[in-house]
Amino acid sequence: MEKSSQTGTRGQWGSKIGFILAAAGSAVGLGNIWKFPYLAGKNGGGAFVVVYILIVLLMGFTVMLAEITLGRHTQLNAFGAYRTLRRNWGWVGGLGVLAGFLILSFYSVVGGWVVSYIIKSVTGVLSQSNPELFGDMFGTLISNTVTPLLYHAIFMGMTLVIVFRGISGGIEKANKIMMPTLFIMIIILSIRSVTLQGASKGLQFLFTPDFSQFTARSFLDAMGQVFFSLSLGMGCMITYGSYLRKDTNLPQSALSIVLIDTSIALLAGIAILPAVFAFGFEPGQGPGLMFVTLPAVFSKMPLGSIFAFIFFLLVLFAALTSAISLLEVVVAYFVDQWKWSRAAATITMAVVIYLAGVPASLSMGVWSDITLLPGLGFFDTYDFIASNVLLPLGGMLLCIFVGWVWGTKKALYEITSGGRHAFGLAPIWVFLVKFISPIAILIIFIRSVAVIFQ
After folding, report:
1. Cα torsion through 217, 221, 222, 228, rounded to 10
2. pLDDT for the residue 191
3. What pLDDT, on the 0 to 100 scale, is given for residue 132?
4. What is the model's pLDDT at position 30?
5. Residue 30: CB partners within 8 Å, gap ≥ 6?
6. Domains in the chain, ordered, with CATH?
């Protein structure tokens, strides 16, 4: 059995709020800003929102608390956390490290597109009025060979610099700036959106449940979005939890993270859907909602270029707060298990992840005819393996490990800091982590894998 790292030799959060903002930053990402409004638009609006919130409170909180608890108890990265408790379970944590690696390799490519759109908003390129031109603009950007790789490098460079500076001096400090700023920007956009003429249709759509539009697939979409949005199953919360002090109230922290993440998703819906409805656009357009539909919406607004800049800066901050947690998962593995220095691990893995992202970028253009899985190029294959296989598999095995292998009695002792903190929901949490969550995640996993082979 491996010896747990001592807190004196590892980084540590400087404050409880620093951890909560960093963990919430990990959870708040591109999925909150474009995928939640898009899925709500596709699955009956308010009905999707109601089911999503219920799943967040029941399963999202359950798995979040389990991951943080495992990390703090072992004071190790995702791989080491499992291995130090049960040697033959280390591979489960390894799945999280691999997921973080794969997700960041294509996530950084999208982050690069966001950087490009910030520049476009400043230079006035997004001020044109023909919506069709925005589709052509986006297609031209992502299919280009060199330009997206330069923006991919800029985004990965920003991520590298923050992680290089360590836990309290880099990740915590950056999130203390970016998360409050993100909140301010999304509130500004929400106020502007709801004051547009015709915005009430979007608000009604978002908050009036219409279960006639809600299907079994909608339920699975909501469940899958909860796990991806909260960064569950990818080792982020285990890794971040490993830098916590032993007296931190874990249930309060987990609940705070879940509430912040869900609030951002709802605010994104308020910022986006009323504006989309006000100008007569289609709300269920997938990734195109962010790079095609919304620029067209902003172009029709008074002072639209300013709001476009605020929006894409918001998206950049959301992407960065997630990217630094993904890189930290990989870096922590090499620091803890291979005894690399933080500097060596950060630089080396940032370069390797950047190179892994090159095929993902090129698959949008010159390598678009190369497929790895049926009908999927590099970008979509990375996304499918990470999001549809590794994340649900990691989340399910986490529940099995905490519920049945390590044991809920030991987990609860850690959760309550040896009895110092009350946890009135303990019986419910035990039932959810042992029975409901693993079964629900297994359903997501089977459905996700089946989709690709239909």
Report:
1. 160
2. 94
3. 74
4. 85
5. 107, 110, 290, 315, 318, 319, 322
6. 7-452 (1.20.1740)
